[in-house]
Specification:
Length: about 250
């Protein structure tokens, strides 16, 4: 029985480099394999885009989450958030462990920003309770973020047993650092970089991170290491840095 867990979160910018100069989804897949996390929380994942498929000869034939998971992450879930004429995009979770159930809750605050909470329950060999994972991509504005954090709080209180291991990760767009007021103080979670370094990590822009937008919150774990993966080669792939954490189940 392994009590260790290696997780990562990444806003992949729909598979394009900063300012959408280059399609980077193939290099992204290789780098995720090198990262070698057990579970990866992804935001801005393209499920379908007819225009990109016509424009790029090497655009993957499968949805991005399936292409990235390939044979490494045997289970995955995709929450479709934004739907448009060309296709759709949303959040995804890739997992080495069986996903026993999942759902995607629409938490859009207005029609100009489509947002969702992708919630998966996973069966980890030897663990007495399922691991709950929620992939988050919050809106840009304070009022919408407040509503979305309330929805997240309600979901955890209603659907996650108090003693079940829990990970909430993603792009919180939280430069005001509001999220911890809800998730730490009310739900008894810990943010991995606040635990190890005293404050949430700088994660945007990836080449020289200034803003603390991305987070990893956990409950029921001891955090051994938290890391920001920035600079090359990551800065060539997306405008966000990758955050990762190595943890041990309590």
């Amino acid at each position: 029985m392994s009590l260790k867990l290696h997780i990562a979160t990444y806003n992949i910018h729909k598979g394009f480099s900063h300012f959408k100069r280059r399609m980077m989804v193939h290099q992204l897949r290789e780098n995720l394999r090198i990262l070698d996390a057990d579970i990866i929380f992804l935001q801005e994942v393209v499920g379908q885009h007819k225009g990109h498929a016509a424009r790029f000869d090497n655009w993957p034939l499968r949805p991005q989450h399936e292409f990235l998971a390939d044979s490494v992450w045997t289970d995955f879930a995709y929450g479709k958030n934004a739907v448009y004429d060309e296709g759709h995009h949303g959040n995804a979770i890739l997992s080495r462990y069986p996903i026993t159930r999942w759902d995607n809750e629409d938490v859009s605050a207005h029609r100009f920003e489509s947002r969702g909470l992708l919630h998966c329950a996973m069966s980890i060999p030897g663990w007495t309770e399922n691991l709950h994972c929620v992939c988050v991509h919050l809106g840009l504005f304070k009022h919408g973020q407040k509503q979305q954090l309330q929805a997240l709080e309600q979901r955890i209180e209603q659907l996650v047993p108090p003693k079940a291991p829990l990970v909430i990760a993603g792009d919180f767009n939280d430069w005001r650092e509001m999220a911890s007021r809800v998730l730490v103080k009310r739900l008894n979670l810990s943010e991995v970089f606040e635990l190890t370094g005293g404050r949430a990590a700088r994660s945007y822009p990836c080449a020289l991170p200034l803003f603390r937008l991305d987070r990893i919150y956990v409950r029921g774990f001891h955090v051994e290491k938290a890391q920001v993966h920035q600079g090359r080669p990551w800065s060539k792939i997306s405008d966000h840095a990758v955050l990762s954490a190595k943890m041990v189940r309590r």
